[in-house]
Amino acid sequence: MNNQVHRTPEGLTEEIAIKAALNLWLPEKLKAAFPSIVPITRPTFSIPEGNLYPNWVSGFTEGD
Questions:
Q1: In which residue ranges of the chain is pLDDT below 50?
Q2: CA–CA separation, 16 vs 55, rounded Å?
Q3: Going by fewer Cβ within 10 Å, which terminus of the chain is more open, N or C?
């Protein structure tokens, strides 16, 4: 964002491709306006076996 690349046509296309890869995909208006957008590939994430501490994980759900 600091170098203003998102203000170029290529930068805008890249930003929309990133948005297309998010969970909710693209709204219909953006799909119609940019029909050639291909979502970026999202990296996979896997949790190693045995390295997950139940008390640490439950802290996220009981934080309130």
A1: none
A2: 38
A3: C
